[in-house]
# Entry
Amino acid sequence: MKIAILGGGLSGLSAAYELAKYKHAGAEIEVKIFEAGRRLGGLLETHRQDGFVIECGADSWVTEKPWANELAIELGLEDQLIGSSDQWRRTYLARRGHLEAMPDGMRMMVPINWAPLLASPLFSTEAKLAYLREPKRAEELKVAALALEDDESVRDFVARHFGEQIADNIAAPLLAGVFGGDIRSLSAQAVMPLFVKLAREQGSLIEGLQRRAHASTKRDSSSFTSLRNGLQTLPEYMAATLPGDWLSFDTPVNAIEKVVDNWRVHAKGSAQEFDALIVALPARTASKLLSGVDAGLAGLLEIEASSAIIVAMAFTPEQSQSIKLPRGFGFLVPQAHDVASETKLMATTFVDQKFTHRAPAGGIVLRAFFGGAAANELMSQSDEALTDLARRDLGGIIGTLSTAHITLVRRWPDSLPQYAVGHLKRVAEIERVVAGIPNLRVTGNAFHGVGMPDIIRQGRVAATSLVGQ
# Structure
């Protein structure tokens, strides 16, 4: 079987890795990966210099989802796995030019322990009362959740449980840091499936998470996992398992056709035919290519995406002596919708505190994140202008920064798909249509999760479903 994979990002590469396993086991499989750029791995890019390990895209995966961990172990990277330094795990919110810590014992915007919440200056009396009332409203909230016939926005869901103040000041920045999106349009079912499940089963999110915490046996696992030498190690090791003639760089696909039982792929002025096709591209790019195959499918794949810009700055131990950071993983910046924001910065990670082995002893690595509408506005600005903006915005929150030893700017246009209200129904319909088109698979971060484990799982499933059918 000849299989074309469009896109050499994490999903497409995971599919190719799985197909290579079948080939090594004796299956008659030939694959061609069409990658428009000059490297594999998509949003996984690591810069290694002078003892610093700097992630230019994703920096880790959620530990409780097993699929990235399993793949790393398969590849012989078990000794590279490192957990986040959860003894320092704390997230701050930037408010009026200073940082206020989220209280300990929070699962996103839901408290598991009462004492830190009630002692926190971050929440008003009104917000604390809303939290205290939520368990007492369990039956009312359960009835409301079960009566809801369709999806709803994250903001509506959170506001029903905890009020608008928590929705806008806590939930919004927390989720913007992951999706770069607006909780007024993000799908509760797609973005917070566990919370929606708890609301339907128990009503109270607080009581539901407290019960799960008490029942959990995973007391010592870290929240996040990464690789000692950086996440780019993962695509490097996967690529090393592939036959060399499977890879085709600087080869954007111009068009695809369904020709009787085959797929014809047009790239670089020539066409090749394949028995099967795995489309592992951003959804809107896939939509354009599939428009001539199935217009309905192309329409369904018109999934909005937001952009991201990362400015990473690494400071030597000497430079770091003048930088005073609180213990924690970083901070979020609430983005007010009704007033002009004083900063375009959405979040910043204290990289060397989140993970060890990211800087020489005493060094500091900061990653500033600009997302959503701000990222689109800033996309055309120069690296120098973006660096100056990051230093200015950070300076207004953590103090003036000197010129860093290493500065990296990365632009990721349309990289964060927006799981809008109704997303799960849309994905189900996409899968129904694709199932009716022989030997076609679509995969990527636009469907069943934006995190590394979800993307890896989807790519491997796409491959297995073709050759294992």
About this structure: Residues 126 and 458 are 43 Å apart (CA to CA). The chain has a mean pLDDT of 92. The chain has three domains: 2-40+235-303+420-467, 46-87+305-417, 106-215.
